[in-house]
Geranylgeranylglyceryl phosphate synthase
Amino acid sequence: MKTLYKDILQAMLEDEKLLAVLIDPDKMKLDHVELFVKKVNISLATHIFVGGSTVEANATDVLVTKIKQFTTLPVILFPGDVTQITNKADGLLFLSLLSGRNPEYLIDKQIASVSKLRKSTLEIIPTGYILIENGKQTAVQRVTATKPLPRNDIQKIIDTAKAGEYMGKQLIYLEAGSGAIQPISEDIISKVKQELSIPLIVGGGIKTKKQLQLAYDSGADLVVIGTAFEDDESFFNDLKRNAIATT
Ligand code: 1GP
């Protein structure tokens, strides 16, 4: 049963906040997966996302197989490329980079993925992916050869997100870029959220519990965190399942 999207939508309607831990196959050592995923299991995380900008072919398949041995959390692919699609995951963010003007990332790679997806059992979730300027060049920017939307052009950001919804995207993902110095601002999150009736994902540069809470308070339905866990796994201690509920 494909209920990933239904569950995200339901969480949004009930104002239950979601957290995805992003695992980059390029950075995660296979012999560390068990320990890492066990920490994820006892944290507030509700999802595991797997993906990266540059990943060796097959690495995602091997990694997802291993992750699935140690968790019952849904594993969703957040692919940087067609080679990162594996049927071992539960779902796939079918991304279209709406902030950029590179047809490769708007439609060509999506077409190239169809032969793989046609046979797969993955739940495919159409997602409008919007990169916002963050003061330094990000991997997404470099790999996709696109410009992010200027962070001070809030109307353009809102209209891009809304256009995504009109196009039929089921999720909008506001991305500051992996390891961003500044996460997406509260102002941008809240203004985009006000216009959308679909769930809003926010990621990039969130490193503290306070920043996580601010993103939620501003209207993020699902927050993605990767680098902060890669840099310091003790961050999981701040995000133990019962810790935030009492604050
Ligand atoms: C990157 O939004 C994700 O695509 C997560 O970013 O690695 O900075 O947490 P961080």
User: Anything to note?
Assistant: The pocket of SN-glycerol-1-phosphate is lined by residues 22, 175, 178-180, 203-206, 224-228 (CB under 6 Å). The first strand starts at residue 18 and ends at 23. The chain has a mean pLDDT of 96.
